């Protein structure tokens, strides 16, 4: 009895501590906004469109915004803030905001606006996907603090083109990709069984300024949905426009709402958190759930060989349901022969490579893997700044990989691929003028993009020619770390400088080019030939001296 009371006491104390922590974090989140409130903007409508896939989830938010009292902010309008749930923020990989239909812009214009993140993920006991239950229809517990993001809006968006016309609403489209939002349910299936994934999230979108009307639309990869549900409403939850149907399903799309008068987080964080309602979707997925646990890229630049050598080492994992029972090669072959459902098994993987890729290879720890097909394309300098997977099929090179064995749920496969690019002929390397001095600028793909595949950790090492100095880099996205080191290999005298770029939580949006600029004197171009000549001359001289040396003992 005493132990039971002690357990209840500790449980109550832990609950109280969690509520206090939530209150403190919510208060700090609001203080970060520096006075912004729902009075700054009127959010006329808020739409969340969520495309569920495998290891990646694509989300598009559409905010129809109206600035209150625009005459006060003609030259310096306030910053626009929005929220992401802790689960989305923790798995956030890529984000982009597009403004359209704003005042001062033509209807055909678009403006890409930078997004700032103000609150980093906190791991101090808050709920996460790792400890959340996977039972469909589970009651949502809003114990995680949302994360704050902001967008700087240019003043011209709120300037009148004609004095007699009102300023139209500004439409912000925020697109982003999150990783590992869906989990297999059940956790293990037999080789012949279908695969189902389970997703949970907010049915009512989080609105920092509140919203007159909001809606969440979820699109699954197939129309087959085992179940979809929404947690019970609380007293502060917004009402649905149609009280009889809070959720509707049409084909592969499930719509929650529309909701009327979503509470403002900036005015009352506790009320907004209490009004949250969870959506749960249990759906069939007809493709393997693949993740790249680690991607290491090694790039070497050679001006003498006009070559950009790229070598990738990939740690691949199938995140689908684990295999129940034993693996049968006969069943696997029959499923392929008769085109049966074998969606949770990875049999092949298509990689899109840049135009002009040549001499591709595919090896693992055993050696060369011949069960692959490489289709090269000629150099196309006009397409080098476009990610290969976004090019037409006849523009990008492709490497179709077939592993040595089918990859089932929970199985891993480690392998290496590599290819070469023409440095000058392919326009990957150019000479540019920087402050009146000639330098080299080389475009290097950060990673090989694979559609709908999460990359948990990526590292790219770019080895520059020996003697390179004044090294700078530019990347189209944020990097977690950048370091410089010396890479030494055969026939090097002082070693080659290298740049190491690292980033976690990557997706196919990070398959873009990073640019490395450096200075290389003319004498450094002849460093390698001079070293090779010196080595051969030393070997020749050593051989000549050895022939003159008498090693026999005279009698």
UniProtKB/TrEMBL annotation:
GO terms for molecular function: transferase activity. Residues 1-38 form the signal peptide. Residues 220-247 are annotated as: Disordered. GO terms for cellular component: oligosaccharyltransferase complex. Pathway: Protein modification; protein glycosylation. It holds the Pfam family Ribophorin_I. The keyword Coiled coil does not apply. The chain crosses the membrane at residues 529-546. GO terms for biological process: protein N-linked glycosylation via asparagine. Keywords: Endoplasmic reticulum, Membrane, Signal, Transferase, Transmembrane, Transmembrane helix. Its main location: endoplasmic reticulum. It is a single-pass type I membrane protein. Residues 220-239 have a biased composition (Polar residues). It comes from the Eukaryota. It is found in: Endoplasmic reticulum membrane. Subunit of the oligosaccharyl transferase (OST) complex that catalyzes the initial transfer of a defined glycan (Glc(3)Man(9)GlcNAc(2) in eukaryotes) from the lipid carrier dolichol-pyrophosphate to an asparagine residue within an Asn-X-Ser/Thr consensus motif in nascent polypeptide chains, the first step in protein N-glycosylation. N-glycosylation occurs cotranslationally and the complex associates with the Sec61 complex at the channel-forming translocon complex that mediates protein translocation across the endoplasmic reticulum (ER). All subunits are required for a maximal enzyme activity. Belongs to the OST1 family. Component of the oligosaccharyltransferase (OST) complex. This is Dolichyl-diphosphooligosaccharide--protein glycosyltransferase subunit 1. It comes from Ceraceosorus bombacis.
């Amino acid at each position: 009895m005493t132990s039971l009371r002690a357990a209840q006491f500790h449980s109550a104390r832990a609950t109280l501590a969690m509520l206090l922590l939530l209150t403190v974090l919510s208060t700090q989140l609001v203080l970060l906004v520096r006075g912004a409130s729902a009075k700054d903007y009127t959010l006329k409508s808020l739409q969340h469109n969520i495309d569920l896939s495998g290891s990646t989830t694509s989300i598009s938010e559409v905010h129809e915004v109206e600035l209150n009292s625009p005459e006060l902010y003609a030259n310096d309008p306030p910053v626009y803030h929005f929220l992401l749930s802790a689960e989305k923020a923790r798995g956030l990989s890529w984000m982009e905001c597009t403004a359209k239909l704003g005042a001062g812009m033509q209807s055909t214009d678009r403006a890409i606006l930078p997004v700032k993140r103000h609150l980093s993920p906190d791991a101090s006991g808050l709920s996460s996907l790792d400890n959340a239950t996977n039972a469909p229809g589970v009651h949502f517990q809003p114990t995680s603090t949302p994360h704050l993001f902001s967008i700087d809006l240019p003043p011209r968006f709120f300037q009148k083109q004609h004095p007699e016309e009102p300023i139209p609403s500004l439409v912000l489209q925020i697109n982003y990709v999150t990783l590992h939002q869906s989990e297999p349910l059940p956790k293990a299936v037999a080789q012949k069984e279908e695969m189902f994934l389970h997703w949970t999230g907010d049915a009512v979108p989080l609105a920092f300024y509140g919203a007159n009307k909001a809606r969440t639309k979820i699109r699954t990869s197939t129309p087959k949905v085992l179940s979809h549900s929404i947690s019970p409403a609380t007293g502060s939850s917004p009402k649905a426009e149609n009280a009889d149907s809070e959720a509707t399903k049409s084909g592969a799309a499930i719509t929650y709402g529309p909701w009327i008068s979503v509470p403002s987080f900036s005015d009352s964080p506790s009320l907004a958190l209490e009004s949250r309602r969870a959506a749960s979707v249990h759906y069939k997925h007809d493709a393997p759930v693949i993740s790249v646990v680690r991607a290491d890229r090694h790039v070497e630049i050679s001006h003498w060989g006009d070559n950009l050598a790229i070598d990738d080492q990939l740690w691949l994992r199938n995140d689908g349901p684990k295999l129940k029972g034993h693996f049968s090669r006969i069943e696997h072959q029959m499923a392929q022969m008769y085109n049966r459902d074998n969606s949770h098994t990875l049999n092949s993987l298509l990689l899109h490579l840049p135009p002009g890729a040549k001499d591709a290879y595919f090896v693992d720890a055993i050696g060369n893997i011949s069960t692959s097909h490489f289709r090269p394309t000629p150099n196309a300098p006009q397409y080098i700044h476009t990610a290969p997977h976004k090019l037409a099929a006849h523009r990008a090179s492709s490497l179709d990989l077939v592993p040595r064995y089918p990859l089932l749920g929970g199985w891993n496969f480690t392998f290496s691929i590599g290819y070469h690019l023409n440095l000058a002929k392919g326009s990957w390397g150019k000479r540019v003028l920087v402050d009146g001095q000639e330098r080299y600028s080389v475009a290097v793909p950060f990673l090989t993009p694979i559609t709908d595949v999460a990359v948990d950790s990526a590292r790219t090492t770019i080895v520059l020619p020996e003697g390179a100095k004044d090294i700078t880099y530019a990347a189209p996205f944020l990097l977690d770390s950048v370091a410089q080191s010396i890479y030494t290999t055969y026939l090097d005298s002082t070693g080659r400088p290298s740049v190491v770029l690292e980033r976690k939580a990557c997706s196919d949006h990070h398959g873009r080019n990073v640019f490395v600029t450096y200075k290389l004197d003319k004498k450094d171009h002849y460093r390698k030939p001079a070293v090779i000549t010196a080595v051969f001359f030393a070997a020749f001289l050593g051989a000549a001296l050895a022939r003159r040396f008498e090693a026999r003992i005279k009698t």
